[in-house]
Design goal:
Length: 86
């Protein structure tokens, strides 16, 4: 997918995470296939980890993503989403 290749070319990891998040929530209209969603979540998580490793603050990253700092934990998790059984 062209979006993913241009996404990973973004050097600033915080901007890369924000862009991946925007594509997840506000991307191109129409259904997203599961592979694309997984790729975007992975790119976002890796960018967050990279930003933290480079010394960027969790508060700064969370603010740019419009989430709480505690949300970064699940955003960097590589677990598959789980849903309660009915």
């Amino acid at each position: 997918m062209a979006q993913i290749s241009s996404l990973i070319a973004i050097e600033d990891p915080v901007l890369r995470a924000v862009t991946a998040n925007d594509l997840l929530w506000n991307g191109a209209p129409g259904p997203k296939d599961l592979g694309t969603v997984r790729d975007l979540r992975t790119a976002r998580g890796q960018a967050i980890i990279e930003a933290i490793g480079a010394g960027r603050g969790r508060e700064e990253i969370a603010d740019r993503l419009h989430v709480r700092p505690s949300d970064l934990a699940w955003m960097t998790s590589d677990r598959e989403p789980t849903y309660p059984t009915r």
